[in-house]
Amino acid sequence: MSESQPARPTIREVAKLAGVSTSTVSLVINDKGSISPATRERVHLAARTLGYQANPHGRGLRGTRNQIIGIALRSLDMSSAYSQPGVDHHLRLFGAAATRALDRGYSAMLVSRDVSAGPRPLWSDGFVIADPFDHDQFLASLTESMVPVVSVGRSPDFGELVPFVSTSAESTLALNHLKARGARRVALISGRERTAWHMRGEEAYSRWTRAQGMSSQMVSSPEESGSEGGALAARQLFESSPDIDAIICHTARHAAGASEYLRSVGLRIPDDVMIAACSDGEAARSALPPITAIDLRPEELGRQAVDLLVDRIENLSSRSSVLIDAELLKRESTGPSAGSASRSTQATMRRT
φ and ψ at 254, to 5 degrees? Predict the structure, then answer.
């Protein structure tokens, strides 16, 4: 699991090293009281030496809540840029979370990869971790420190030990729709990042194909690769399995790229190959044809995550999880066709 985290230095250790009382350290750190310049310098030097987080807003020093919650978007922490064209899921989630936090008397602050890679910020009363990944060190440090935390998506490492908010059966919803439309050979394009989202989707796909008696055909591409990565992944799939009649993609941008590749080689959507995305986004809505997608309801995820976290901070509830129903948005990429038999025959003729 995670590597053990070194114990954080305490105010008592700072006081001992500086040769003063803990109350003097508290006064110095909070810039209060009539403390001599020499003593102040000694305290600050001791704090720096020990690596003590001398944060005047730290709840550990104040003994009260700061009415601030931190939100970490872990899948974006793994990319080179937080702004991803064609992706609105995280914007919708954070916007809804921030406004719900205000309704509950808290402010919400985004936590960058630089902050999450270091010691826990002392300014926050708790954290929402969106889409934690496998062996997530930030999440591990929070749980080990007994900091209130809620994840959006069930943690691969901690499972039920970390309260979570999630949509239910979104991958299966899309897969069943493809089957109902006549698909018999469904392939998956997943994200290469080992986040809760991709790992859960891959497990659902494997279970579903086994239950249907289908062979599993799966490739992955980094989320950040966008439509170009989706096109390359689709090419890889069809070079190894040219009889695929449907593709399900975890991200809308991968789905848009797969669509571009299919059209470039003369395959018709949805007549020859159907495409669906497990998360909606502008890339799916603006694709030609528009791509069927799952609305993960990010606004509701954000609101419910904040409610769950604040309830735990204030000891109002012991709820451990909240499941939200996803919604299938049917579009032209899985539209009606002449039937699976004729589609398979036509597709085979086009690929030979």
Answer: -65, -40
